[in-house]
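@channel sequence for tomorrow's demo:
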Amino acid sequence: MDELSKEYVLSFFTKTLRIYGDRPEALRWTPEGQSLRFRCLLDIADDINGKKILDFGCGKGDFYQFLKERGTTVEYHGYDINENLIALARKKFQECDFRVFDIDRDILSEDFDYIFLCGVFNLKVQGLDDTVKTVLQNLFRRCRIAMAFNALSAHKPGKDFELHYQFPEELFHFAVTRLSPYIALRHDRILYDFTLFIYRDPNAFQ
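structure tokens (generated this afternoon):
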């Protein structure tokens, strides 16, 4: 992502945080929509308790709050490019590791069991399709078990001009040919929204 696009994304969410405060709307979610997408991410495994996870594009730590409310205990790390969102997350959840992180500049130096990306690339900026693929490649190198990524489906008939939509079949093809042969795609949980699961090893029957 070029610097102009980054500045747009930073200013957009700094503005929405100022308007909405500590609410899902600050990240362009409804409370119901955010909760549904978090539930979809947990399709990644039967149980992630005790695992080390990275919430990439964590915003103000809402996914961690969701896990806490469900009684799920993890070693949580939240990275986001927006320092205002990270500052709020650190204030709310002092027990967690929150970092201001730009994947184009900063080095991801540790491994995680699971990596989650929720709505990270939903805001429309130039060249985003290539950015998504580069980020997924860089993150999966540091993923021990599986990575989950959700996005808005380009199969939606009517589209919001501010939002970025992706073809799930194109992301599936990219992931299965460039990242891992062990891929699951869900396009059935939320209308015109999809989640891609990328596994390091076969997700075998128990």
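heads up for whoever presents: The mean pLDDT is 96.
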